[in-house]
Each structure stands twice: as structure tokens, then as C-alpha cells.
UniProtKB/TrEMBL annotation:
GO terms for molecular function: metal ion binding; superoxide-generating NAD(P)H oxidase activity. Its cofactor is FAD. It comes from the Eukaryota. The keyword tRNA-binding does not apply. Catalytic subunit of the phagocyte NADPH oxidase complex that mediates the transfer of electrons from cytosolic NADPH to O2 to produce the superoxide anion (O2(-)). In the activated complex, electrons are first transferred from NADPH to flavin adenine dinucleotide (FAD) and subsequently transferred via two heme molecules to molecular oxygen, producing superoxide through an outer-sphere reaction. It catalyses: NADPH + 2 O2 = 2 superoxide + NADP(+) + H(+). Pfam families: FAD_binding_8, NAD_binding_6. This is NADPH oxidase 2. InterPro entries: Cyt_b245_heavy_chain, FAD-bd_8, FAD-bd_FR_type, Fe_red_NAD-bd_6, FNR_nucleotide-bd, RBOH/FRE, Riboflavin_synthase-like_b-brl. Residues 19-129 form the FAD-binding FR-type domain. The gene is Cybb.
């Protein structure tokens, strides 16, 4: 038995030592941005840190807890000179981080007063393969929208600097959330991308649909009254917010009809139930002919 146990235990100990060494490297918080609805953005720098789109890191703040590590998806692009995470204040640890960063104070905080942060990672996810396809479907549900902030930023940087060599030609983005107010920072990102795409006369590069799955009678009345306005009253985007849940069968058939003979990447960050639905649709809408359309499903559950 010991021959079978020693090898895996040795590899495990090596992995723990590497993670401990990485977590001891100095991390500098360069900027703290307070977003609406108690969401903060931490922009950080670390020597030798290299990332890909959609990856995540583990974060420890000794000022809050010396033992707790928490995973956060990176919301910055690899092309940026910093890496960032968005933290929504929903518990004791995040509340402690919020206070440690001085976000509960009105006055400006000096950089040397910011807490020390330990970072382990980054770690890979399925979202890294997004640039392997010409056409992709990105589906984010609730907080699962965060990996696609990194993806969309990186796509934009690549598009601006070398659009001819960018394999990715079309993005269908779906955002399902109960309440957009919790993720207003992401709506701001979409607004920026929308305006920049229009300036370059390529508004069709990114097609997005925002679905509010939790809404009441007051919101419905507000929607009816302002439906004819140029921009959506909830997100400020030209694309109007939709209510309820997508009809995935229709969405897949429509996209398959627009891109015959293509390999279409389907990327999800969301709950297991939605993953099962998209996996079944990917299989049922892929053709048996190798030259036909094929949907390749990639998931990241939480």
C-alpha cells in the first residue's frame, strides 16, 4: 500500500509548497474602486503575474482572517498592466475586507493604509478557449457574469490592435440575472463596448441579450411605459432588457441557421441546472455530418 500512497502524497506536498511560496509573494493594491450596491473593485499588481481570460485566484487578507482563502474571478484583461477582482459585500469576510480597505470612510485613503493581500493563482477555466472559435455563445447567470468581463475586455483590446488576426468574428452574449442593480459595473462595461463598436462601425460584432428573471408588476409597468425610448431605462443600453428566461431551443436554432458549417463554442458560468439545459441543446442542435454545424459546450459551475 505504501508504494501507492507515497507518490501521490509527495506530489501533494510539492503542490502545497508551491502554493505557499506563491502566496508569500508581495501584492500591491494600486486602486480601490467603490461601485454601487456595495461592490468594490480591487486593482492589484504582483511581480511575474501572468493571466489568461476567465481565470480565477484565491485571495487572503490577514487583516480580516489569517486562515481564510476565498476564490474570485479575475475581471481584468491580460492586456492590462494590472489584475482586478470585483467583490460584492455579502458576508462577514467581504464586510471585513470592505472596512479594511477604508471603503466605509468618506475621506481619501492613503495607499500605505491599505491592507496586505496574499494571492494564489491564477487557475485555469474553460473560458480560456474562447479564442479558439470563430463564433461563440457566452452565457452568464448572476455572479457568473464576472469571467466574461475579462473575456469581453480582452476581445476588445485584440480587436483594436490586430483585428485581422483575430479568429473570433462573432459573439452572442446572454446575461441572466434577477436584478441588474447588483452588477451595474458590468452594465457600464457593456455600455462602453457598445459605444466603441459603433464608433468603429462594427456594432454587429457583439450581440447581447439581458434577461431579468426576477421582476415584479411595477417593473413590468415601467417597461411598458418606456419601451419606445431609444435606450433601455434599466441598463442604459440600446439593446432592451428582456423579461423571463430565454427560449434556448429557438436561440440555438437561430444561431445554427446563421452560421452553417461552423464550430460554435458555448461557454457557461452558472448553475448546474442551466448547464444541463445548454448541454442538451448543444447536442440536439449539432449535425451528424462533420461538415455541418457543431456546438461545443464548455461549463464552469458554482
Amino acid at each position: 500500500t505504501w508504494k501507492w500512497v507515497v507518490g501521490p502524497m509527495f506530489l501533494y506536498l510539492c503542490e502545497r509548497l508551491v502554493r505557499f511560496w506563491r502566496s508569500q509573494q508581495k501584492v500591491v493594491i494600486t486602486k480601490v474602486v467603490i461601485h454601487p450596491f456595495k461592490t468594490i473593485e480591487l486593482q492589484m499588481m504582483k511581480k511575474g503575474f501572468k493571466m489568461e481570460v476567465g481565470q480565477y485566484i484565491f485571495v487572503k487578507c490577514p487583516a480580516v482572517s489569517r486562515l481564510e482563502w476565498h476564490p474570485f474571478t479575475l475581471t481584468s484583461a491580460p492586456e492590462e498592466d494590472y489584475f482586478s477582482i470585483h467583490v460584492r459585500i455579502v458576508g462577514d469576510w467581504t464586510e471585513g475586507l470592505f472596512n479594511a480597505c477604508g471603503c466605509d470612510k468618506q475621506e481619501f485613503q492613503e495607499a500605505w493604509k491599505l491592507p496586505k493581500i496574499a494571492v494564489d493563482g491564477p487557475f485555469g477555466t474553460a473560458s480560456e478557449d474562447v479564442f479558439s472559435y470563430e463564433t461563440v455563445m457566452l452565457v452568464g447567470a448572476g455572479i457568473g457574469v464576472t469571467p466574461f468581463a475579462s473575456v469581453l475586455k480582452s476581445v476588445w483590446y485584440k480587436y483594436c490592435h490586430d483585428a485581422t488576426n483575430l479568429k473570433l468574428k462573432k459573439i452572442y452574449f446572454y446575461w441572466l440575472c434577477r436584478d441588474t442593480h447588483a452588477f451595474e459595473w458590468f452594465a457600464d462595461l457593456l455600455q462602453s463596448l457598445e459605444a466603441q463598436m459603433q464608433e468603429r462601425n462594427n456594432a454587429d460584432f457583439l450581440s447581447y441579450n439581458i434577461y431579468l428573471t426576477g421582476w415584479d408588476e411595477t417593473q413590468a409597468t415601467h417597461f411598458v411605459v418606456h419601451h419606445e425610448e431609444e435606450k433601455d431605462v434599466i441598463t442604459g443600453l440600446k439593446q432592451k432588457t428582456l423579461y423571463g428566461r430565454p427560449n434556448w431551443e429557438n436561440e440555438f436554432k437561430t444561431i445554427a441557421g446563421k452560421h452553417p458549417g461552423s464550430r460554435i463554442g458555448v461557454f457557461l458560468c452558472g448553475p448546474e441546472g442551466l448547464a444541463d439545459t445548454l448541454n442538451k441543446q448543444s447536442i440536439s442542435n449539432s449535425e451528424a455530418d462533420p461538415r455541418g454545424v457543431h456546438f461545443i459546450f464548455n461549463k464552469e459551475n458554482f
